Amino acid sequence: MEILIISGLSGAGKSKAASFLEDMGFYIVDNMPAAMILKFAEFCAGGNGRYDRVALVYDVRTASSFTELFDVLDQLRSMEGVCRMLFLEASPETIIKRYKETRRRHPLRNKADSLEDAVRMEREMMQPVKERADFVFDTSRLSTAQLRGELLQLFDAHGEKGGMTVNVTSFGFKYGLPMEADLVLDVRFMPNPYYIEELRPKTGLDQDVYGYVFSFQQTRDFMERLKDLLAFTLPLYAEEGKTSLTIAVGCTGGHHRSVAVTHALTEFIRDRGYRVTENHRDMVRGV
């Protein structure tokens, strides 16, 4: 079992971090008092793998005693599994700017004469927690995509690649473009197996149709150029923070050429280390 404590300063990005971690498969619990963390961890340990990765948000709202939190951390780290703490901070100027933009109220505002005093007070209060953290991020100059990328590098086995799922789908232009497509590839220039009588009732997943499509040099040249393009662009999409990329490959009816190319493309993307799904929207349509 993996337990991650997310702590830090108000306005430093804990909520965004929690949402990114949830996308990575963590079960998120916000605003949990230290006294409940150990019991919750014991509950998760008996969950038959359902709660293998848990992230608990702990901040100044629940901080009654840091001694209690540190005792809990020591006990968690002595248990079987992994327990780590992530601390997020930002400069006072950045936090004040963020609160002004969102018009939210700082949790310590009632105890301070100004927002600036509240930010300073919280920074002093949370210093002992920061010193016990395994990871400290200063989000002052981190964009949302950069924060997500840092978290992926630390907490996802596949790094930034694991944060993006690539969906490759074949389709027939005669039935319209897939609405969710980010990239559309038109392979109608390839020789069409439809005009080969024994291939017509088959699909691009059948070996003889697949072999026919890739028997032509123009198909192989196209795939090599397409692979170069994707090898260049996929890391950039992942770095920018895109969580889902849909590549649509179309031919006339969506039975032969687009299906064969989609299957080959899916294997290439999977070999590059990305999570990928393969779908054939119109393959059995009209059959």
Could you describe the 3D structure shown?
36% of the residues are buried. The protein has nine helices and nine strands. The protein has two domains: 155 residues, P-loop containing nucleotide triphosphate hydrolases (Rossmann fold, 3-Layer(aba) Sandwich), CATH 3.40.50.300; 119 residues, no CATH class. Helix content is 43%, strand content 18%. The protein has a five-stranded parallel β-sheet with strand order 2-3-1-4-5, sandwiched between helices. Helix 1 crosses helix 6. Strand 2, helix 2 and strand 3 form a beta-alpha-beta unit. The chain is of the alpha/beta class and 287 residues long.
Proportion of residues in β-strands:
15-25%
CATH class type of the largest domain: Alpha Beta
Query: Structural class from helices and strands?
Result: alpha/beta
Question: Which stretches of 5+ consecutive residues score pLDDT under 50?
Answer: none
Q: SSE order in H/E notation?
A: EHEHEHEHHEHEEHHEHE
Number of helices: 9
The CATH superfamily of the largest domain appears as P-loop containing nucleotide triphosphate hydrolases
What distance lies between the first and last C-alpha atoms, to the nearest angstrom? Answer: 49 Å
Assembly status: single chain
